[in-house]
Amino acid sequence: MYDPHSARNEEASAEIAAEALAEMGVAAAVIARTGQLILSTRHLEPAEPDEETALLISLDLSILGADPARYDAYTAAIRAEYAHVSDRDFRRGRDALLRSFL
Predict the structure, then answer these.
(1) What is the per-residue pLDDT for 45?
(2) 51-77 residue pLDDT tens
(3) Residue 13: CB partners within 8 Å, gap ≥ 6?
(4) How many angstroms from the chain centroid is the CA of residue 46?
(5) Domain tally, the chain
(6) Which of 84, 72, 59, 64 is nearest to 4 (CA)?
């Protein structure tokens, strides 16, 4: 689930996953862990995540290590998704997000 107008993308994705997994009869512990992993992509988790979470976060942020042309294309796509945000606010938000990863 992804909506550039929403601040609840990860939460909504975790809810959708939980519903789908429950319908498939997946064990409650697996559903809970799946939700935890999805929520970890908010990048608000503790500084020392477990190995599985660290791997998912690394995969989620792998675009930051892509070659410059691929990263530029990604950045242009993100900007297009947030066309409703002013250039000034977009730059500030993007700067704050990237700095939070340091």
Answers:
(1) 57
(2) 999 899 899 999 999 999 999 999 999
(3) 1, 2, 38
(4) 15
(5) 2
(6) 84
